[in-house]
Write a structure and sequence with these properties.
alpha/beta; six-stranded mixed beta sheet; three-stranded mixed beta sheet
């Protein structure tokens, strides 16, 4: 399991440039005109994880398999996208399948790159995109009400619950607030998620800045960061053009380029780390002579749930998990050394997996 992000934004904000850089492909055409991306492009990238390489070295693993992250590049939205303007309608549906939505916001000045609204204002851009998503959600909810009311009157308890959630979300949207602002009880979460509302998804704001502002941002990105804090959203500053140039370099050249730009890591790493935090994700590892592999799970997942990410049979027949903390695996030079030092733990079904755990599962087939 990795996670899947839908990348949205107005035309000419650097969205496809960022997509190309992150996925290291030329699958999404980047050009200075609206709707250059005419199909949603899906790119898969490895999640940066330095610990995995250290574990592979110690375990003498033949293969290294990182966790994966999917980006879905959605065509540039414009006002009226929820009503089919531009190419909006066909692309809104693709966002429903994602775990989170990344808003790429233009935070750079460049007279040579036309802005569809004729000005550079990332907050206004954010609100334009959000409005289109809210309008699409409203239309989706309104279509369901009559049928749900009919079922609810007939005594259908599930329909009553769903109708209540629909009406609560509809009231929020009509008040100009996204569905993620809804107060949803734990026992309502599953039904709420099944509404598949675009504005219920976690969001991340990516501020696309000039190369000179990549390290510390600028006044535009500062406004976005303030808005993110208010909304509980993630916020990352990236220079899409710099990322595109980085993508063409080897590792040594990348390190030099980053240092010259005053950056500690590529924008991809920052984006993924922010995404993991936003979605409550963490990593555990399996290590052996055949392969060293990173697996993505949610914080709070138990050992059987973690095993289920490898194969459902592992979860169904779970017996125990032989577990070593990453630091202990490294300190004692592998599994045998950790065992000899008493650092391998046998964990049962109630064990809550910790980030960095090295695990081996025992199960009944």
């Amino acid at each position: 399991m990795g996670f899947r992000c839908g990348i949205v934004g107005l035309p000419n904000v650097g969205k496809s440039t960022l997509f190309n850089a992150l996925t290291r492909t030329a699958a999404a055409q980047a050009a200075n005109y609206p709707f250059c991306t005419i199909e949603p492009n899906v790119g898969e990238v490895a999640v940066p994880e330095p610990r995995l390489f250290k574990l592979a070295e110690i375990g003498k693993s033949k293969e290294i398999i990182p966790a994966r992250m999917n980006f879905v590049d959605i065509a540039g939205l414009v006002r009226g996208a929820s009503k089919g303007e531009g190419l909006g309608n066909a692309f809104l549906a693709n966002i429903r399948e994602t775990d989170a939505i990344v808003y790429v916001l233009r935070c750079f000045e460049n007279d040579d790159i036309t802005h569809v609204e004729g000005r550079v204002d990332p907050i206004a851009d954010l609100e334009t995109v959000e409005t289109e998503l809210m309008l699409a959600d409203l239309e989706s909810l309104e279509k369901r009400i009559a049928n749900l009311e009919k079922k609810a009157k007939g005594g259908d308890k599930e329909a009553k619950l769903t109708l209540d959630l629909v009406l609560r979300a509809k009231a929020l949207l009509e008040d100009g607030k996204p569905a993620r602002a809804a107060a949803v009880a734990d026992d309502e979460q599953k039904a709420f998620a099944m509404l598949q509302l675009l504005t219920a998804k976690p969001v991340m704001f990516v501020c696309n800045v000039d190369e000179g502002d990549a390290a510390s941002g600028n006044a535009h990105s500062a406004r976005v960061a303030e808005r993110a804090t208010q909304e509980g959203a993630a916020c990352v500053v990236i220079c899409a053009q710099l990322e595109a140039e980085l993508a063409a370099l080897d590792d040594a050249e990348q390190a030099e380029y980053l240092a010259a730009a005053g950056l500690d890591e590529p924008g991809l790493s920052k984006l993924i780390h922010a995404g993991y935090a936003l979605l409550g994700l963490q990593t555990y590892f399996t290590v052996g002579p055949k392969e060293a592999r990173a697996w993505t799970i949610h914080r709070g997942d138990t050992a059987p749930q973690a095993a289920g990410v490898i194969h459902t049979d592992f979860e169904k027949g779970f017996i125990r998990a032989e577990t070593i903390a990453y630091d202990d695996f490294v300190k004692f030079n592998g599994e045998q050394g950790a065992k000899d030092a008493g650092k391998m733990r046998l964990e049962g079904k109630d064990y809550v997996v910790r980030d960095g755990d090295v695990m081996h599962f025992r199960f009944n087939a």
